Amino acid sequence: MTAADRDSTVRLDLNNPVFQRDLFGLQKAERHAALDMLGKLRQLTWNQVYRDKGLRWEKITSVEPPAGIAALYSLRITQARRAVAYRDGDFIRLLSIPPDHDTTYGKK
Questions:
Q1: Which of these, 3, 9, 62, 72, has the minimum number of CB atoms within 10 Å of its CB?
Q2: pLDDT digits (tens, 9 = 90+) for 13-54
Q3: What does the buried/exposed string (b/e) look like for 62-95 if buried means 16 or more CB atoms within 10 Å of the residue's CB?
Q4: Could you give the CA distance from residue 76 to residue 64 in angstroms, rounded to a whole number?
Q5: 28-41 and 17-24 are packed helices; what angle lies between their axes, rounded to 10 degrees?
Q6: Which domain holds residue 19?
Q7: CATH number for position 86
Q8: Cα angle at 29 between 26 and 30, to 5 degrees?
């Protein structure tokens, strides 16, 4: 990964139907918190995403990524929820917001 890759601004892909279902299914306060986090995320560089202690960008090693995806990651989307995503160039492609921590890591 080059310095340019780390310093590029994050672009969001929110088009996954599972992610949309999960996001719109959140209770109002949690949905607003998630939207605030997404707003923050789109202002960051990738280097900032990797270092941000609030996001806690973590590689998910307990789940095999789908074909064509190098690795899946989790990040804090609200105080109580994590989202599953992967990096595709400058894009963070959000896949889901599992209902609990264990599901995020494939333990249920």
A1: 3
A2: 999 999 999 999 999 999 999 999 999 999 999 999 999 999
A3: eeeeeeeeeebbbbbbbeebbbbbbbeeeebbbb
A4: 20
A5: 130
A6: 3-104
A7: 3.30.2310.20
A8: 45
